[in-house]
Design goal:
binds 5'-O-[(R)-(carboxyoxy)(hydroxy)phosphoryl]adenosine; 11 helices; alpha/beta; binds zinc ion
Amino acid sequence: MIEKVLAIETSCDDTSVALLRNDGWVIDQISANQDRFHQKFGGVVPEIAGRRHTEDLLPLIDLILRENKISWNEIGGIAVTSEPGLLGSLLVGVVTAKTLSLAKKIPLIGVNHIEGHMVAAFLRDKEYAPKPNWGFPCLALVVSGGHSLFVQMDSFGEYKKLGGTIDDAAGEAFDKFAKMLNLGYPGGVHVDRLAQKGNPTAFDFPRAKIHGDDSLDLSFSGLKTSALNLLKRMVPQDISKSLPDLCASYQEAIVDALLIKLERCQKLTKAKNITVTGGVSANSRLRYKVSEWCKKNDLHLEIPPLKYCTDNAAMIGYAGLMRLQRGERSDLSLAPKPASVFLDV
Ligand code: KG4
Ligand code: ZN
């Protein structure tokens, strides 16, 4: 019987470690954010990300065990993100987890990062627990800087991808727009903040693949091009005067696209339980519109707290725990996969 799991997440630019109890209770999670190292480049620089993980990961593992007074012989499993992500980032986590598993003779499990995002709402701690009536079967919208997809989840491990982005992820669409406007990196939060003072109907941005097609996929590249063309036509003074309106209108186009496809997925699956996770679930307009829609349609919504929505080790620990409890193990040949066949992401 596995009592406690140590989880490691290093797939992109957050170094995160967590300790979980076997019932999904998060004992602790410590993360090192790298935003300040990537900011001046306007995006994640893979080589810097890998180097930061190398410096931060083992000290974080040492710290979380010491602070929680947990010894290695209490750890019954090590869960690590092994796919998808940046190769140099994944390598640091995977090699560290394998080394610890070998040295300490602890079972190892490689976890898909997207599965982690999908199950984040099942985590529990002192401040958070999903509502008692929430659970499987459920419909998950995972929206982050790297992924946007809709998944039907019938139980742990029983997933069906219903649709996803065919080009940019929703977070990428936010970040690229913020970059065009020099708002800072990562840009989603800046667009969100400015949008709160703007009019979402001031500019007419396209909602791709919504009207007249029943696809469950998303596309944000047309929106990005339309924004670029609009900004090229505007003089700098008008752009700065219109920043709130531009942000509100652009944001509305993303949120509408997500919501329309989410509604379509719900009609198809008849799911009563909905979860939205990933960094973009922090978006205030998305949260508002999804919760209004859920209220109107008597659907149960769980959006985990931000610390479990953005890249984090606790969600990896939970997905790993479910797999370890089913008897799954990874061997020492576990290798990182930058792209993964799981759910085609
Ligand atoms: O899940 P996450 O932390 O990392 C990835 O797996 O990508 O998501 C990061 C993404 C970034 O694109 C960021 O701009 C976006 O989440 N984001 C937001 C907001 N906060 C973070 N997008 C829109 N509105 C926000 N408030
Ligand atoms: Zn992620």
